[in-house]
Specification:
alpha/beta; eight-stranded mixed β-sheet; elongated
């Protein structure tokens, strides 16, 4: 099967390589040609324009975009729709908001092109382990791209979640859950580090231990073991935590539907908190404690 891959970042590059390894033909385009040439060395067809990429594919074409959410996707989709034909399939595998999928589906349908949203999880390990794919769109389009999904995913690692937007909606909630799980591990290790037993604990070995039959075993703990093995107390990194947007969207969705999600919400707030030192709200708290109870405060130098 043929596929055109647009966007060769950390995810797109590994996805294209995995597809190649499973015998599919890949035509690739990236904004910077160096990555396109890099993938060509692995057997892909290098394309240096969207026109060249679309022309390289057999009908009905499958064009898969791995691009940053927002205007970049709209711009590329518009350009691709000018080049594709009725019956072709365009897949957005990035971290798009599901409400944008509905609009884009309608735009593509006007030209007879199928639009599919594919929430993709697997990170930098996906090339080796496979990618988890949460797919939204028509059953017809899903059936057409299923050989590609099977190449990308481990066994049982892809699912048609429902109509347009369902794939990205499920991926959004998936990432919200991920935020909560990561925060739980972070807080647990924080309590251990603040305890009188901290000097006796090897966190890499502890992470490994918890993955041996424990109820909290997980792949995240496997990654924690790797991180602690490389840096036992993580002193070489700063505790500044970014968010990619899906955690925010999950919280906003919870508000929109009045769904209680205190853990996911607080995990997002903690990421915001990680980006500031000596925050104004904390100074307000310290000042109030001093005012009503005479509690000591630490003065700035």
């Amino acid at each position: 099967m043929h596929i055109g891959m647009i966007g060769l970042g950390r995810m797109g590059m590994n996805m294209a390589r995995r597809i190649l390894e499973h015998g599919c033909e890949v035509a690739a385009f990236n904004r910077t040609p160096e990555k396109t040439e890099q993938l060509a060395a692995s057997g892909a067809r290098a394309c240096f324009s969207l026109e060249e990429l679309v022309q390289a594919l057999e009908q009905p074409r499958v064009v898969w975009m791995m691009l940053p959410a927002g205007e970049v996707v709209d711009r590329h989709l518009e350009a691709v729709l000018e080049l594709t034909e009725p019956g072709d399939v365009v897949v957005d595998g990035g971290n798009t908001h599901y409400k944008d999928d509905r609009r884009r589906f309608d735009t593509a349908a006007e030209k007879g092109v199928h639009y599919v949203d594919a929430g993709t999880s697997g990170g930098i390990w996906g090339l080796k382990k496979g990618f988890c794919l949460m797919v939204g769109g028509t059953k017809e389009a899903f059936d057409h791209i299923e050989p590609i999904l099977a190449a990308l995913a481990p066994q049982g690692g892809y699912l048609h979640c429902g109509p347009t937007g369902a794939g990205h909606f499920v991926k959004m909630v998936h990432n919200g859950i991920e935020y909560g799980m990561m925060q739980s591990y972070a807080e647990g290790f924080g309590i251990l580090e603040d305890s009188p037993y901290a000097e006796h604990l090897d966190y890499a070995r502890l992470s490994q231990l918890w993955n041996q039959g424990s109820v909290i075993r997980s792949w995240l703990l496997e990654l924690a073991e790797i991180a602690f093995a490389e840096s036992p107390r993580l002193n070489d990194i700063q505790g500044y935590v970014h968010d990619s947007g899906e955690g925010r969207w999950t919280v906003l969705q919870a508000v929109e539907t009045a769904s209680s999600a205190p853990v996911l919400t607080l995990s997002l707030m903690e990421r915001f908190r990680s980006r500031r030192e000596n925050t104004f709200p904390d100074r307000v708290l310290a000042a109030l404690r001093q005012q009503f109870g005479g509690h000591a405060v630490k003065r700035s130098k």
